[in-house]
Amino acid sequence: HFLTLIVSDTGEGIPEENQEKIFDPFFTTKRNGEGTGLGLAVCRKIIEQHGGKISVSSRPGEGTEFLISLPFASLPGGDHER
Questions:
Q1: Domain ranges for the chain
Q2: Which residues contact 27 (CB under 8 A, 6 or more apart)?
Q3: 16-46 pLDDT tens trace
Q4: How confident is the model at residue 78 (pLDDT cuts 50, 70, 90)?
Q5: What are the Cα distances from residue 51, in Å, to 3, 40, 71, 73?
Q6: Engineering a disulfide at 80: which of 1, 41, 45, 72 sits with its beta carbon 3.0 to 4.6 angstroms away?
């Protein structure tokens, strides 16, 4: 069983050629001094360390959607932590 979070916006979107790169450490399209390019790389690492996955879907000019899936933690006795 997984919990899925969807985070979306209606911004400018991410060009298709950058969608595979956005989770790479230090990848950024910003100018020098405006960001480190670590945010999404750190997010992916934390999510994966918890057994989850993150994916992106984006259309330039229409916005971007991130899907984050995390497994429920099992408690003794088989109940799920909420």
A1: 2-71
A2: 18, 21, 37, 41
A3: 999 999 999 999 988 888 888 899 999 999 9
A4: low
A5: 11, 16, 6, 10
A6: 72
